[in-house]
Amino acid sequence: xxxxxxxxxxxxxxxxxxxxxxxxxxxxxxxxxxxxxxxxxxxxxxxxxxxxxxxxxxxxxxxxxxxxxxxxxxxxxxxxxxxxxxxxxxxxxxxxxxxxxxxxxxxxxxxxxxxxxxxxxxxxxxxxxxxxxxxxxxxxxxxxxxxxxxxxxxxxxxxxxxxxxxxxxxxxxxxxxxxxxxxxx
Length: 185
Known about the structure:
This protein is α+β, with helices and mostly antiparallel strands. The protein has helices at residues 2-20, 27-41, 47-52, 113-121, 177-181, and strands at 55-80, 83-110, 129-133, 138-140, 149-174.
């Protein structure tokens, strides 16, 4: 019970710390986001998604782990018309047959303005999944938009076996005007 309390307190501190951070798209963030986008752009199967989407959110580094119950966390950036418009955080809780941990990058494509609007309002989630990743890495592909959103994952490493049900939450934090112009805040 004490371990559970410590774990919940640590998760709460981690989650609230992200909200208190200033929303700045600085050079290190730009380098990570650019590298993640380039990794997805190098996959020819994703060309049509880049061409057809009105926006996309990229998460350069996300982490998920579980042992019966688990969670995931990541921060990323929302791109609209090729420009960064917001920082996005991902929180996930899940339960099921899962064991291990993995680091991955992901990208979410929005085909319509309505889907993007739902995402910005926080009315957006994916639930239920099966996942098998190993240290060398792997990839998960979805065949099309469902209904107006497509999610792609590139596993960077770890060992995770999973068949779980859960919920993801995405929070969108618009950038300050000075971050958009490249001037320091």
